[in-house]
Write a structure and sequence with these properties.
Chain A is α+β, with helices and mostly antiparallel strands. Chain A is globular, with a radius of gyration of 15 Å. With 123 residues, chain B is mainly α. In chain B, helix 1 runs antiparallel to helix 2 and helix 2 runs antiparallel to helix 4. The chains are: A alpha+beta (136), B mainly alpha (123).
Chain lengths: 136, 123
């Protein structure tokens, strides 16, 4: 798993239609591994992502969702989003739960998710922004 | 002279009153982010004067390197690294995405996330 170098690479917007990130599994990457870049749809946006980064993104997402379900409960889920600002792309996971949680509990659970992920996979520390439903 | 903790206290004060406006919530979130950004920059002595990356990315990368290369990295650094993207996105939304709603609860939550870092910061 690459560190910050891979994360800070520039993304290039492309025009091809590909399955959504949420649909991806590692088996998909074999088909696209020959090209330098593929394009993925993140919600309603097209974002160019390098192949090795898509693999990293998928692994990161799966790792975080396991932690989210462990901390927030099995019914919790998360969807991927991306904020692009200046030269930086920040990936987020929007967490949905069955019930609205008070701020203190949302904060504690977010920290717990991050602790769990970063202890198990240090390379993923600080990879995703988290948002919990009920705060928007 | 102003310390990052004082900037955080200012941010917390913005969302501690009875009636809080969206402007206050946005400013609280942005100041909370900057309190952590400045804390990390100064604690790690990050040189941002000669970088081809953005200043913010440079500081975050330095924090990632510090935590990943130092087994005994202090708790506040680990929590700051974990929460960095959440704080950064909130700051971008608060400062630049004025046509999107920014709920008061989000401002309060960002302040509490930053507070969690200062709570374990020893100085």
């Amino acid at each position: 798993m690459a560190g910050t170098g891979a994360r800070s690479s520039r993304f290039r917007v492309g025009a091809l239609h590909m399955p959504t990130v949420q649909d991806w599994s590692l088996s998909h990457f074999a088909h696209w591994a020959q090209g330098e870049e593929v394009n993925v749809r993140v919600r309603d946006r097209m974002v160019g992502v390098r192949v090795n980064e898509t693999a990293q993104l998928s692994l990161a997402r799966d790792t975080y969702i396991k932690a989210i379900k462990s901390i927030f409960g099995a019914e919790a889920d998360a969807s991927l989003a991306c904020t692009e600002f200046e030269s930086e792309s920040i990936w987020s996971l929007a967490i949905t739960t069955n019930s609205a949680l008070p701020i203190g509990e949302r904060v504690a659970k977010q920290i717990a998710v991050h602790d769990l992920v970063s202890e198990q996979t240090p390379a993923l520390a600080g990879f995703f922004a988290l948002r919990v439903d009920g705060d928007a | 002279m102003v310390t990052p903790r004082q900037i955080f206290s200012f941010a917390a004060g913005l969302v501690s009153s009875g009636t809080i406006s969206e402007v206050q919530a946005r400013q609280a979130a942005a100041r909370a982010y900057y309190s952590i950004f400045l804390l990390v920059r100064d604690e790690l002595n990050v040189d941002t004067s000669q970088t081809d990356k953005g200043v913010h990315q440079t500081v975050k990368d330095a924090l990632f390197d510090e935590v990943s290369q130092t087994q005994s990295a202090p708790r506040y650094q680990r929590v700051a690294l974990n929460l960095w993207p959440t704080l950064a996105v909130a700051r971008i939304d608060a400062d630049y995405h004025l046509n999107q709603p920014f709920p008061v609860t989000r401002g309060k939550e960002i302040v509490e996330l930053a507070r969690a870092i200062f709570t374990v910061y020893p100085n």
